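Subgroup meeting minutes
Present: P.N., E.W., G.H.
Scribe: E.W.

1. P.N. recapped why we're keeping a running log of single-chain structure predictions: easier to compare across weeks, and new members can see raw inputs and outputs side by side.
2. G.H. added today's entry (554 aa).
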Amino acid sequence: MGLSSSMWAGVTGLLAHGQRMGLISNNLANVNTVAYKGSNMYFEDLISQDIGTSAGVAQIGTGVTIGAVYADLSQGGFETTTDALDMAIGGNGYYIVKEKTSTGENGQALSSGNLTSYYTRAGNFRFDNDGYLVDTNGYVVQGWEVDNAKIRSNEASGITTTQVPIKGSIKDIKLDQFQIPAQATQNMTVTTQLDSAETDHATSDTDPFFAMATLWDGQNVLDDEDALADTAFAYQTTMKVYDQNGTSHNITIYYDKVTVSNSGGKSYWEYIVTCDPLEDGRTLPDSNGGLAVSTTDTAGLLMMGTLTFDASGNLENTSAYTLKADATASGGSVNLNQWTPAEINASGYPEFTANFRSVSGGSATDSANAVNIALNMGIRNTTGFTGGAATAAGVGTSQTNLTGFDSATTKFNTNITTSNSTSSTTLFNSQDGYTAGMLTGVSVDQDGVLTGTFSNGQTMELYAIALADFSNSYGLSRAGSNLFTETIDSGQPTTGRANTGRLGTISGNTLETSNVDLASEMVDMILTQRGFQANSKTITTVDTMLAEVIQLKR
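Output recorded in log:
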């Protein structure tokens, strides 16, 4: 190896260490960049030159070059912030962002924008003035729309949802409206514990299973009296529901034990579902010329029925009766002949209606415009009621005449009404109606579900944020602005929801910090500086040696 080769070896050292200093400088420059991933440079030697020696052929190196530059994809630290839209990924995964798609007045896409998907760990997102959730570059975060109809259906059926259901494919996350309209109550759940030691308060020689209903007089409220005397029931519970305009109304359920001979160890309770008689908007028959129910004794009486418990106090069956569209509202006392087995909703719960808004054709559960409320007491059957008498009047004094659910297809919920030897109390109640509300805040949970909070106290799951992972994340190409793009080396992305599979969780009010280690970078800088100095020394030394060679001829 000649002197000139020695000088060029030093030059390669200068070039390599100069590049390394540039990498270190970039890492240090981004020490406070959100979710920045540092880089590491690795050297390798150049091809060696063969030389002859007394021991045979030997090799001398010719310098150094840059072997590889790898991203440091280790987890950055977490920094707590005051904005709920700041999000940090804990574990594997990248947010997916795209240029927004513009649409015309007819909803048709005018421009699909840049179809390139970018990937980022920087979760400092905000909503823009068009309602898009965007990053600092204006690119829209991608995710799935939440299937709120499925959520409501599951809640009505008593199904516990382990993961928020989604619908459709990955799309731009956009809030189309920042308010939630009023929602009429469609499902109410009331589970109670009824004291088995209670006695029969409301009695009837002819209709013991509907004694409270026969004592009900909705016209009493006109004289500031109760529609049902305090001595006529064992327990009552009241909850608030909403009509389609968002106006609240109180629904009260009264319970009373029924004295039954030859019960075979079973116990029976009757119940009635009622509202304020002055708010009863039904007209029956539900056609032109019908009589306003609010003018009759039946005003406010929406449903009647029974609960059957076994010897252990477990609910084993139920019955429910309502007025249908062809029922006749009479001015006298409650006419049990008009009350027939209640309609069942898709989840298997009996339905009633009060027609609070006095909608034409909405006064009975089988009316075309009815806004029905399904009552969940912990028991359901989608096949509806079977057997028994055709009307409540036909039940008489025999429990065998009660309609009920087929035991072979009846389902029991975890939360269910019971009758044990302890004080009567309401175990749980809920309903799904609400008044209109404005969006007041947004939050994100560890599963990446974006939830809106509204001024009416309601929360609604809006979107599930999509994450992407790669078989070789080291093959991603940096695109600047905290963005990466896929390459052949990285492979195609695998998309999924946060906290599933290999994908990490998402933390709200949190940002991932740069993973650049300041101390390590300073040490690398010292070593790089010394390496550069050493290689420059090689060049100056060879220069001196060449000068000596030139000086041989004087």
